[in-house]
Amino acid sequence: MNIEQFNILSVGVGGQGVIRVTQILASAALLDNFYVRTAETHGMAQRGGSVSGYLRFGDLVDGPLIAAGFADIIMALEPLEAVRNIKYAGKKSIIFLNDKQILPLSIYQSKKIVYPEFNQILANLKKITNNVFFVKATDLAEKAGNAKTSNVIMLGVMFGTGILPLSEENLEKSILKYVPAKAKEVNKIAFKLGIEEGQKIRSELN
Amino acid sequence: MSEIPVIAQDKPGKKLIMLGNEAIARGILEAGVIVAAAYPGTPSSEIMPALAKCVPYHPELRVEWSVNEKVAFEIAHAGSMSNVRSIAVMKHVGLNVASDAFMTACYHGVRGGLVVVSADDPSQFSSQNEQDNRYYGLHAIAPVFEPSTAQEAKDMLKYAFQFSEENNSVVVFRTTTRLNHGRADVEFGDILKLNRTPEFDWDRHRWTCVPSSTRPQRTEILLRMKKMTEEADDFPFNKLTISEEKINGKRYGFIATGIAYAHMIDALNFHGIKDKVSILKLGLVNPLPQKLIKKLMTSVDELLVAEELEPIFEEQCKAFAYDWELGDKVKIHGKDFLPQQGEFKPETLITQLAKFVGLDYTPPESATLDILVPPRLPQMCPACSHRNIYWIMKQFSKKHKMKFVNNSDIGCYSLGVYKPLEMVDTMLCMGGSIGMANGFAKIMPDDILVTAFMGDSTFFHSGVAPLINAVYNKNNMLIIISDNSFTSMTGGQDNPSNGITLTKEQGTKILIEDVVKGCGVPEENIWVHEAYDMEGLKEKFEQAVNAKGVRVFIPRHMCSLQEMRLVKKNKIKLPVIKVDHDVCIGCQTCVRQFGCPAISFDYEKRKASIDQEQCRGCKTCIYICPSKAFYIVEE
């Protein structure tokens, strides 16, 4: 497949598997013969803070960062983090949100700091793009057998909608390469469940 | 033996995705390096663990976590003196620590190729400043390399050792966060087998630094730089592309290096003008290739120097243009279009490049949010022992209405600067806490308690000298060395406190209290205590506050992140803590003042609860809760 560039921004909170999902996607993109670039959050920023994984692949990618307004996909393992990164969304962006809320500790420090309602989050994201979808990824991950596979659920969802220009074979190969040996089976199930969920969304894409 | 890790395999042509830091480690291996030493520091920390994986299959490698960057550099220098390729790895501010050794080592020159990796951090993702270490090249009269992709990082690093040997010069290898912490496709080269025996040459005129040695070496270093400058145009990673095309009647040119080069190419491609402009890509960023720059300057009307941080190329180019009397023919731009602070953002380059070449471009519209996005600052982990001691200190200060000047240091405990603890008053650099406390001790009135707060790794790195200073000069203070046995902030590296070496062997474990005693602190002024025992911690802390002289308080508990690895591995059952909602009065002390990430508060029910996924069973919440609502369900 020839594409100039495809940009995926994965966001979430430290420990949710943002870096891992970026790694899996990068590996699959290389197996599909694309040039690949990622940028990740490590070190101090990781300690319970917001985490971002930038992924770019295609025939014309040099730098690792996504320009504001040009993410093809924004995948948020925590809904608030999608809003925090709204500058990366453009009219054509597709945004997937795991509906699992993780409260930032800052809400306890001032009455003015509140976690917005999910419908407010949705309304604000929809100012930029109509393609915003909540996914019950954590619930599905529990169904798959481990709540920590929510990142792989989201990976499946992205693929299931048909918008991810990567092959299922290489995605699965990469998932199995990057998850711990004893979690291979549960991640396979999570990927399948995610794909099914993504296929449901497919008809709603604008 | 299990399967050889990919990074250690001798498979030229193999293609894979590598973290920039892994590509650097592979470059070190391919270059035939023998000696590699480092102190961890974001964004450089993953280089050494990746290299250490190769040691069992390449036993000629001698690698270590040194106690600080200066020692790491000196180790590499000794390797070079002994005719083997050697490298020291550090973050940008680490080179400040190593600079005393580095500056004079540049005079000595090298036998085995000697490279120092400086991982800079534009935008300060995890650093105290955003200094631009390309300046060290100008400062030390040393060549500086800068790669722009992971592939180039590996290839250039391999070449850096050859260059170092050919030019008798220490090479500074500068990277930035987005290269270190980005992944990209990399193709392996061959692993050089140099078969050199480490051999010292006993040349004391060369390897000492008495003025009679280094004065003539100063002459030589200037001559070496002159030669490198003359040959810079042939440097294999510099590349000049000249285009005869014009945009709106003018010819445009660009100079860039590193990740900024990659972003610039993306921006030029975005506007579809990459082939219509002239571009000089620099791999060697000191000295600059003057013939190439002259050719570029005489081929364009407008030149934009696209460099992150300081205008180092820009200022040199402007000076060249003056010398070459090109001032009227080419206009040189840089910081008038591009920011001097922070890393380059692709959207900034896209917008500013359009402005520079006079293209019409409107960036995509952004949304105006009608909600506030609560900040999510980095914080200490659940069960972190640093939080416990900060809590004790804060409660003591409140209860006794005693003011502290708490000097903190570089490490996870620096997060104590944020709400809810807000216990950090000063912070400067590695070891700076005790150093500054020495100063405050000289001048603060008696009713103010002068404290220093640091971790184990920072103490070994640069806490010992200022401690000796305090004892020697009777600069009375209370020093807290919060010992969690790991270098945690940078990813949980081992250090002298746990005694495990980089290659995961048991080295010698060094007890902080033994060092402190050796520095002259009397035994009765040293307190060591388990950091999860809050009652005992409080009692010992009070004793330490009330004692006289230099006092050292050592709360000790293993970094909870590391402890959790052991818990998982050995299937240890953690105590389960819950909140009794009949007892909880909704005072929010736990979330508003203590701030353990595992505790949340429901504003409708007005009750606290514990997220069992996050809780690590330290039981500190039981102690801090005024109404004793937390309880152990099962031990």
Please explain how this structure is put together.
The complex is a heterodimer of chains A (206) and B (635). Chain A has a single domain, classed as Pyruvate-ferredoxin oxidoreductase, PFOR, domain III (Pyruvate-ferredoxin Oxidoreductase, domain 3), CATH 3.40.920.10. Helices cover 37% and strands 17% of the residues of chain A. Chain A is built from 7 helices and 6 strands, in the order βαβββαβαβαααα. Chain A has helices spanning 18-31, 79-84, 118-125, 137-144, 150-160, 168-178, 184-202, and strands spanning 6-13, 35-40, 50-58, 73-76, 94-98, 132-135. A 6-stranded mixed β-sheet of chain A has the order 2-3-1-4-5-6. The radius of gyration of chain A is 16 Å and the shape is globular. Chain B has 635 residues and is α/β, with parallel strands linked by helices. Chain B has 4 domains: 6-233, Rossmann fold (3-Layer(aba) Sandwich), CATH 3.40.50; 238-357, Rossmann fold (3-Layer(aba) Sandwich), CATH 3.40.50.920; 385-567, Rossmann fold, CATH 3.40.50.970; 573-632, Alpha-Beta Plaits. Chain B contains 22 helices and 23 strands. In chain B, α3 packs parallel to α4 (92-108). At the A-B interface, α1, β2, α2 and α3 of A face β1, β8, α10 and α13 of B.
